[in-house]
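Handout, section 4.2: multi-component inputs.
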Amino acid sequence: MDLQTIKKVATLARLQMEDAELEAVRVKLGNIMKFVEQLSEVNTDNVEPLANVVDIKLRLREDVVNDGNQQQKVLANAPEQMEGFFVVSKVVE
Amino acid sequence: MSDLTNLSLAEAAKGLEKKEFSSLEITKAHIEQIEKLDDGLNCYITRTPEIALKQAAESDKRRASGKAGYLEGCPIGIKDLFCTDGVQTTAASKILEGFKPQYESTVTAKLFADGAVMLGKLNLDEFAMGSSNTTSAYGNVISPWKRNDGSNADLTPGGSSGGSAAAVSARLCLAATGTDTGGSIRQPAAFCGIAGIKPTYGRVSRWGVVAFASSLDQAGSFGRNLEDAAMLLKSMSGFDPKDSTCADKPVPDFAAALKQSPKGLKVGIPKEYRVEGMPKEIEDIWQKGIDWLKAEGAEIVDVSLPHTKYGLPVYYIIAPAECSSNLARYDGVRYGLRVDGKDLNETYEKTRAAGFGDEVKRRIMVGSYVLSAGYYDAYYIKAQKVRRLILNDFLEAYKQCDVILAPSTPSAAFAIGENEDDPIKMYLNDVFTVTVNLAGLPGLSVPAGINEQGLPLGLQLIGRPWDEETIIRAGGAIERAANFTAIPSLLKAKKAA
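Output:
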């Protein structure tokens, strides 16, 4: 696995990393990916992927408003808020 | 009055009912024990003595007016992965430092509704990612156990629910909640000489539990014996419309299963669990477990789980993939840490770089990689397919047996720092436990003996979906036969002094 790939993955994951850190991650990630390679020896033709082990159907609830009016609670842990909104840095130039 | 912290949860509930002592008294006894011992052990990230005393006083009032719940007045600890209304919930991560949920997790709400008293929030590996409780941003948890060779090395309590297991073992609470994604209840229970139950996926609501890998995460319980763990689990379990994967099934009286003999049970022994290089002490304790169950009239059956060796590689694709998705929410905007950058993207990147620890970052990176364009089918879908084969192995085995007996861990507790440089070696800790999460099955660990170094060893029982009662029934037989009475070195030393 090359450093370029690791850099790209770090960008996708929104993790800022210095070069030394990227290199350390490259080695460890490489080891893990080598370890999981052994799955390729398992024949999985005609096997359905298993996403959820629960043997129950997901339920649908009635399509009604059952929650709300909790602005203060929603904002209670915000690093920055103003007039009932979350504040982020300017995104439109 | 004898030391109230030495009572089991069941004994405490009985003593409170008979009014031999009050909730305030037993709560105070635990708060004192925490003050005495926890500076050294670091089990609690947040101690909540004021809340505990308030809840205990309210509990005593309810008791006096004849309105006692199932766990009325019993002081317990809560893994700091369960959101608690108005009480800091960190997931042992810097990124959630100071986060005070504005709601109560379903599990803690149920426990409080049954009268339980909360002593505090227990330490864990950061976001429950780890097997040694050394990835917490709030420091390592130290096991109350020591080797008897005079080395005095600090041992790991296991992880990720290390604070929960160490606290129950050191009498810093009567019982504690945990979560188990790849073995995070069963491994620390084994390392700390206590009982731990991970129920069937869907038995306990995940609502308000900080998510790591949603298709594997399941909350469960710790107690110093199986009866205690079963009682706590009963209170935690049950339908919750707020978790779409939580099953609408009646909750059995789990502890009642302990009264049944294992006579007639078919106990499966999976040959693939005899891994190469398994220490003799693990093999011996496993054989003892087989002999004990046989002596009680159970029938031993050889079974095969041929895809066992693929459990870890499947886990190390699926868990990081789900982790990278779940942890995308930590963006420095709505809650938790924010480190400002020159624009929003840089704010995200700096916040997450500063807030997450190395192990969490590594898993996010693995997950982002296996989910990225071009790799999704080769890794993630492939892993999900092998996951089905692992589940099928179990379903096949359960045509021949009712319950499976295996070791909980491939070794006794190791010293803090050992295995740290080699993630693969660290992950091997979970070799006997991860497949159970991948298949969504109930599993428990029960203390079964002590090794030559004086450290606890656990045995694991794995059951059919929704059949916690059979693993508790078989586990109870092992518990009676093993008659595990050892107490942690730390408490022995205190007694002698």
